[in-house]
Fold:
Amino acid sequence: MSMIDVKELKAYYTTEKYGRIYRVRAVDGVSFQVHKNEIYGIAGESGCGKSTLLKAISGLIKPPLEILEGEVIYNFDDQSLNILSLQEDKQRRKVRGIRLSHIPQGSMSVLNPVRRIRKSFQDLIDAHLKLENRTHLNDMNMVKKHLDALGLEWNVMHSFPHQLSGGMRQRITIALATILKPDIIFADEPTTALDVVVQRGVVQLIKKIKKEQQNTLIMVTHDLAIHANLCDRLAIMYAGKIVEEADVNLLFNQPKHPYTQMLLDSLPKLGDKSTRTSAPGTPPSLINVPPGCRFHPRCPEATERCRREIPELVEVEKGHRVACFLEEGSK
Ligand code: SF4
Structure:
C-alpha cells in the first residue's frame, strides 16, 4: 500500500487586482502515490507549482491558497487519514511533529533568532510530545542521543542561530525535523541556499536519517543533481501538472517527455565542452495557461492536436508515466 495517495488535486491561489479576481492554477489536477520508505522527488522550473504541491499535500494550506478538488490520503500503519478533511489548522497541527515534519529552505524560518538552539528543541518537544513523567533531563537526553546519532556536537545547543554557519543551522533544522521520528518528511529546497560542499553534507545527513528511521521523504528541489543523488523516484512538473514520473535512473537515462529531455540536456556534462541547450521561451503564466498541452508553445514536437487537447499522464512502461501524445500507444 502507498504511504501517500494524492488524487486529482487542485490547489489554486486566489488574488485580486484592480477589482478583478484571478486564480493562479499552481497545482492543477495532480495524482501520484508515494510508497512507504521511499524518497520521492519533485522537480521543475521555478514557478511550476512544486512548492505549492508540497504545501497542499502536507496540509499547510492558508489563504490565498485554496484546495478546490482532490484528496490527499496518508496510510499510516494504524490509520488512514485524509489531511484535507481536517478543516482546522489546530487539527492538522496535531498530526505534525510526530507523524509529519518539514525541512524548509531557510533555517531561520524555524529557528528563533533570540533563543538558544536548545530552546527550539525544547519548544518542539513541549508542543508535540504528550508523555506522562516527561522531565527536562529526559528531553535533553533524547536530544543528545539524536545529535550524537547525526554526528552533531552537543555544544551547538548553547548557541544562538546567528552564531552558527548556514550549513550548521540547516543540519540543526534537519535534526529538529527528525527528532520525533516522523513517518513522513516534507523537504522544500533544503539545500538551495548552501554551497556545494555543504550541500553534499546535508544530502548525506538526510540519507543517514532516512536509513535509520525508515521515514518516507518527499523532496522538492529544482536541483536535478540532488534528485539524482538522493531520490528513488522523480516527478517532473510543468505549469501545475506532473508531465513525467519514473524511477530516478530510468528518468535520467531514458527521459520521454520533451520537457524532461530539455531539462536534462541543459545540464553540464563532465568533459563535454559543447554548448548546452535549454528550453526556448519561458514557462506560461499560471493565471492564463495555454490550451491543450501546456508545454506546446515551447515544444519543438508540437502538433495541431497538442494545441487543442490535454495529454493525460499515462503509464507507458512499468513505473514510467508520461503526459505526451508522442508516447501514445508505446506501451
Ligand atoms: Fe510536445 Fe505535444 Fe508532447 Fe506536449 S503533447 S510535450 S506539445 S509533443
Observations:
- The chain has a mean pLDDT of 89.
- The radius of gyration is 21 Å.
- Residues 38 and 242 are 18 Å apart (CA to CA).
- Residues 2-99+182-268+278-328 form a domain with the Rossmann fold fold (CATH 3.40.50.300).
